[in-house]
Structures are given as C-alpha cells and as structure tokens.
Amino acid sequence: MEITGRVIKYGNNVNTDVIIPSKYLVYTDPLALAAHAMEGLDPAFATKIAARTIVVAGANFGCGSSREQAPLALKHAGVHCVVADSFARIFYRNAVNIGLPVLECAGVGSAVQDGDALRVNLETGLVEDLSLDLRLTATPVPAFILEIMEKGLIEYIKAKK
Amino acid sequence: MNIVEKILAKAAGRDRVAPGEIVEASIDKAMMNDITGPLAIDAFRKMEGTRVWDRNRLIIVLDHLVPANDAQAANLHRILRVFAREQGLPHFYDVGRGGVCHQIMMERHVQPGEVIVGADSHTCTYGALGAFATGIGSTDTAAVLLTGKLWFKVPKVINLILNGRLRPPVAPKDLILYLIGQLTADGATYMGVEFSGPVVEATSIAGRMTLCNMVVEMGAKNGVVSPDDKTADYLASRGLPATPFLTGDADAQYDQIIEYDVSSLEPMVALPPAVDNVKPITEVETVEIDQALIGSCTNGRLEDLRIAAAILRDRKVKPTVRTLVIPASQEIYAQALKEGLLDVFIQAEALVCNPNCGPCYGGHLGLLAAGETCVSSTNRNFVGRMGSPKANIYLASPATVATSAITGKITDPRTLEA
C-alpha cells in the first residue's frame, strides 16, 4: 500500500480529546464526527485537509481515551495516512481496525515539515519526503496487520468466518 | 514468567509466552459503556453477529452521560438497552443501578488471573486485583462479542518497586502522579507496569485501583499488582469467588526494574495541559480555583469520600468555589449516605451528584467556562477535557482537592489547621 500526499504536521502527545472533543461523541454518523476532527487542537484543520491528506506527528499520537471516534473522524475528514514517531496503543489498534493507515516511523516528527510532499510505503516502511529529498525507513507493518488495515476488521473477520 | 506473561499464557492455552509474541487469548470478561458500546454493536452487526459469544461475560454500564442529558445521549442509552434485552444480558447496569463502569467491574465482576478487555481506556484499573485488563476500541470489542477472543502482543513489563511508606495525607494518587511525571506520558507505551514493594503491599485495593487506573497516562497497556492477602480479603468481603491467584515466578524477567523510595513524597499536582506535567505541591505557585471536583474512576471511592469528608467536616467551601462530589457507584453513594459523609458535604455547601463520569468526561454536569480553573481528583487535564479549551485543569488527590475547596486556591493538605 503506497500513499502520497502533502503533510499536515503536529507535535508530540496529540490526545484523542483534541482529535475529537467529547461533546461530539454522541454523534453516530462518521461524517458528523469528521466535521469536528482536530477541533480541539487546530481550528484550521478543516481548511488544511482540503489540499493535504497525510498527518505527521511526533511521539505518542492518539494518547488518552479509547474513543474509536478519533481515527474515524480523521479518516472521514479525508486523512489518508498518519505517520508518527510513535502511537498510543489503543489509537493504533483502532486505526488499523477501521482501515486508517498508520505507520510508526522514528524521527519523522522532526525531519518532515508542514506542507511537504510525502510518499509512504506501508509494506516496505519507506517514507520519502519529496520536498526535502529525504528518505526515512520505518519498521514495515506486519503482514496480518496490513491485511486488517486494508480490509478493516469487520471485513477481515467476515472473511475468516 | 512474570504475572502478565503467566496470565496471557494461560488465556492463550500455552505453557510459555515471551514479550513481543502475538497470542490469541480467550477473553474472560468484556465491558462497554454508553460512548463506546453503540459503535461496538454497530460493528458487531456489520460482522453479521447475531448472538454474543457468552452473555454472562459481557458487562454493559451506562456511565458517561447519566442520566441522559439530551436526546442524542438518550439514543445511545436506548441502543444499549435494546441490545441488552435482545441478548438477554444479565449484567446490564442501567441508570440508577450502577455507576462508573470501572467501579462496577471491581465491585462485582473482576477476578484475579482473568483477561479482561473494556471499551474504555481506564480498563487498566482491574490490575488492582491481579487481572490482565486493558482498554480497547469499539471494533475490537465487536470482535470479542463475536468470537470471545482477541490478539495481543505480549508486552514487555516494567516492575516499579516502591519502597518506604506513604505519609498521610500523601496518598496513592500523589504516588501515581509522581510516577507519571518520572516516566512521562509515553514512558511505558505498549508495556505492562507491575507495582510491587512494601508501599504496594501496604496499600488497600482502593489505592491499588488508583495506581493501576492511571498507567494509561504513561502509555501502558496494563497495570497490575500481584494478588495477596488483601486481594483475598477484598474478594471474601464482597462474596466474590477467589479464582486461583496467578503470580510471577521467582525468576520472572522484566524489561526494566525501577526502585523508588517514596517516604519523603509530597502531595503532587499535575498542571495543565498534560498529565505528566507534575510538580510537588510546594513548588506550585498560587492558583485560584473556580471549581473543585472529587470523583471518577480514579478517586470516587468510599475511602476518597471519607478523606474529603474528614477535611470538610464543620467547615464550608469558599463562597467563590463550586465543589462537586461524585461517588463512583450507587453502592458507594448509599454507604456514604449511611456514614453521614453526604451530610458533611451538603453542610459544607458542596454539591453531591449522582454516580457517573461527570465533568471528567467533558459531557455534562459541571463543565468549565473559558478562563476558569478546576482542581480535580480525576485522571486527565487535557485541553478541553472539561468544557472550554480555555479552562485549566489541575489534578491532585482527594485531600488536596478538599483542602483547596476550603481555601479557594490549590492548597497543601498538610497546611490545613485543625
């Protein structure tokens, strides 16, 4: 799976409360959630996402609450991939399960700049910053996780039944 | 093997497991609530699920928006109520029958050595009884509802050996805030955290719950305390069966062993906007408060209410401060009433609310306006966690919160005059 796009960049410890504030969790429609994605941290996110589709962050992206609404909001807002130095474990699993590609890549949060063009290969773990002509290598996503990420856990489970 | 490896090996039907291995574990109990449950049920249906794997092992608790504060919350509750009825679930805790999900689990469902998953990040609380318990999302929960199994990567484990003794009013909350400050918000990411040593041995199950509750704030997968006599006494006092205790072997391996002597620990405060932004209270500059909150899965237990009531007895909270007391369960609420604690709070001009997550979740009941400050016995002080993104949340122990309610500013409980 290869994903290309421009970068919206954030720092360390982006928590799920700012990705999707609690007051919106009463919505069951993913598009209603998406309308408020990143609202707690970046009110300009909605305009940025029109032209940029890859979120890059530092360490511990998605920490805090287990709310699956966080990756859902990002995915349905138009985020194609999140690349971070590291992820909080519940967010990582949730993102994989709902089919939002995520890649852990040490150093990406400091090397890549806001607005850069990025190419991400989830099989090989290669992250290329086309603007800076920079290559970073992440640990590739294990095959079974990649399969869940591609199908989503719902389809993965149905296929296994 | 350490205790985490032992529990996961048993649940996976294996003799041994090692850190980094992926195992498929049988789930002993699963829990979901009014925020995460409806999404799980939706995913369960999309997986073409019809009956849950074991109706006796699924616990549903309404707690985040209780009672329903608007029509949308009421709809989430209705989805769960209908599902519970349809599936014939014996453990559905509706409004007025339960409280905060983690408290209910610990009062009635958790047993040592079990693997428990909950669709809430603070599920890690149950390690206080020697279970492996971890938070998961809604779609993972749906997979459990369907199959009764889930894959886990066996975590590396950090053993925190806590020596010395806590000097009251220094409490387990101060200790876990201190440890989060030391290890940082991602210092234990993907890892298990075992608490051991004399301080833990001397700590009640309620205090162990506070320790395990907040390991997720350092990124951990689970927190655990090896079961002992206190565990056995707790189970016996509640009439719960004592499943065989699983404990670590004498030659258990850990990724890290860190020892602390905590005898000189002071009351601690986590300053906004991060849980690992922790300072001893003596180093916190003057902070005037608008609201004081005692409650939540972290510190809404009877032990916490007793401490707060001892401080507030025959006193009044400062007129400029709203003080909220939220017992974590109906049982705690009833017992606090019986012991006269609620009367102490009412006489002190604190507001006693119904058992639920309250403003800790940011949904209702005491949210903050821009520019306001709250000192809280809860677990997160993120931007916007309790209402306005321009409000400030300071985390502290129930003793510090109660003392601060009286003085109107964040105050060291050791300075309160008798």
Outline of this structure?
The complex is a heterodimer of chains A (161) and B (418). With 161 residues, chain A is α/β, with parallel strands linked by helices.
What does this structure look like?
The complex is a heterodimer of chains A (161) and B (418). Chain A is an alpha/beta fold and 161 residues long. Chain A has one domain: Alpha-Beta Barrel (Aconitase, domain 4), CATH 3.20.19. Chain A contains eight helices and seven strands. Chain A has helices spanning 16-19, 30-34, 45-48, 69-77, 89-98, 108-111, 143-151, 153-160, and strands at residues 2-9, 54-57, 81-84, 102-104, 117-121, 126-129, 134-137. A seven-stranded mixed beta sheet of chain A has the order 4-3-2-1-5-6-7. In chain A, strand 3, helix 5 (89-98) and strand 4 form a beta-alpha-beta unit. The two termini of chain A are 25 Å apart. The mean pLDDT of chain A is 96. Chain B is of the alpha/beta class and 418 residues long. Chain B has two domains: 3-260, Aconitase, domain 3, CATH 3.30.499; 269-411, Aconitase, domain 3. Chain B contains 14 helices and 18 strands. Chain B has helices at residues 3-12, 37-46, 71-87, 101-108, 138-147, 172-183, 198-201, 205-213, 229-237, 296-299, 302-312, 330-338, 341-347, 398-407; strands at 22-26, 29-33, 58-61, 92-93, 115-118, 132-135, 149-153, 157-163, 192-196, 222-225, 256-261, 268-270, 278-280, 291-295, 322-326, 351-352, 373-376, 392-395. In chain B, strands 4-3-2-5-6 form a five-stranded parallel beta sheet, with helices on both faces. In chain B, strand 8 (157-163), helix 6 (172-183) and strand 9 (192-196) form a beta-alpha-beta unit. Chain B is globular, with a radius of gyration of 20 Å. The model of chain B has no long low-confidence stretch (mean pLDDT 97).
